[in-house]
Specification:
With about 120 residues, the protein is mainly beta. The protein is built from 2 helices and 10 strands, in the order H-E-E-E-E-H-E-E-E-E-E-E. It has a 5-stranded antiparallel beta sheet, with no helix packed on it. The protein has a 3-stranded antiparallel beta sheet with strand order 1-10-3, with no helix packed on it. Strands 5-8 form a two-stranded antiparallel ribbon. Residues about 1-5 have low confidence and may be disordered.
Length: about 120
């Protein structure tokens, strides 16, 4: 019993990392926190927003995070600085863009209640 308590305490604090190449499509499950280790732009489909929803009700992060929306290509672009924690209220796929086209490393946080639904890539 004591051992299981220690496992729960320490498993929550265990950092997980993924590395994604420029232009790759990544599945982003709701409530997973992405924290890039360097500048990155993520493109999300604009369908993630319902008719009356605002960006801030679906995409969550610090005030310094930059948003832009493409009229032609139907994407929402998030410009994220290193160390910013960003998460979504809805799941979607995102495209990773790096300024120098090099792979981007993310630290990820997965809430325990979502562990069973997560893509094995994140485990």
């Amino acid at each position: 019993m004591v051992l299981s308590i220690f496992r729960k305490i320490f498993s929550k604090n265990k950092a997980r990392y993924i590395t994604e190449s420029h232009g790759s499509l990544i599945p982003w499950h709701k409530r997973i926190v992405l924290k890039p280790l360097r500048h990155v732009t993520l493109a999300l489909p604009d369908q993630i927003l319902g008719e009356d929803e605002k960006i801030g009700s679906v995409i969550h992060g610090p005030d310094e995070m930059e948003f832009s929306q493409g009229a032609e290509d139907k994407f929402i672009y998030l410009r994220i600085q290193p160390g910013m924690r960003v998460w979504l209220s809805k799941s979607c796929d995102a495209i990773v863009y790096s300024d120098d086209q090099e792979p981007v490393r993310f630290e990820i946080e997965i809430p325990e209640k979502y562990q069973q639904y997560i893509n094995p890539k994140y485990k």
